[in-house]
Design a protein that fits this description.
This protein is α+β, with helices and mostly antiparallel strands. The chain has a single domain, classed as VSR Endonuclease (Endonuclease, Chain A, 3-Layer(aba) Sandwich). 42% of the residues lie in helices and 22% in strands.
Length: 120
């Protein structure tokens, strides 16, 4: 079996370089391909949230917290995460330090997949 080409793995839906780096890191770490900027819709079809990376069938999301876009929004981000959790989603947060040493976030994400019964 050969690895998928980088062009096939790249997504024009990524909104930042760190989102793309995170996705590539996940692929290199053996995670299945995620949806990029997945729109979580209400029952009426209105977009509730756009999730950076998501596995909708498992209700697992990875959210990259870039400093510039999240500075001063901690309470808002926490309320959003709380609402997602109430909707049955597991949310794993990634910060810039995690791209240097991804151990914490990869461990947390593997645990989330395990909780959903995903086997490697």
């Amino acid at each position: 079996m050969h690895s998928p080409s980088v062009t096939r793995l790249a997504s024009p839906r990524a909104e930042s370089a760190p989102e793309s780096w995170t996705r590539m890191l996940l692929i290199e770490s053996g995670f299945p391909l995620s949806e990029v900027n997945f729109s979580l819709l209400s029952s009426s079809g209105r977009e509730l949230y756009r999730l950076d990376l998501a596995w909708p069938h498992l209700r697992i999301a990875v959210e990259y917290d870039g400093h510039a876009s999240h500075a001063g929004r901690e309470a808002e981000d926490q309320a959003r995460e709380d609402d997602l959790r109430q909707r049955g989603w597991i949310v794993v947060r990634v910060r810039s330090a995690d791209l240097v040493d991804p151990t914490r976030f990869l461990t947390e994400l593997r645990a989330a997949f395990a909780r959903r019964g995903y086997t490697w």
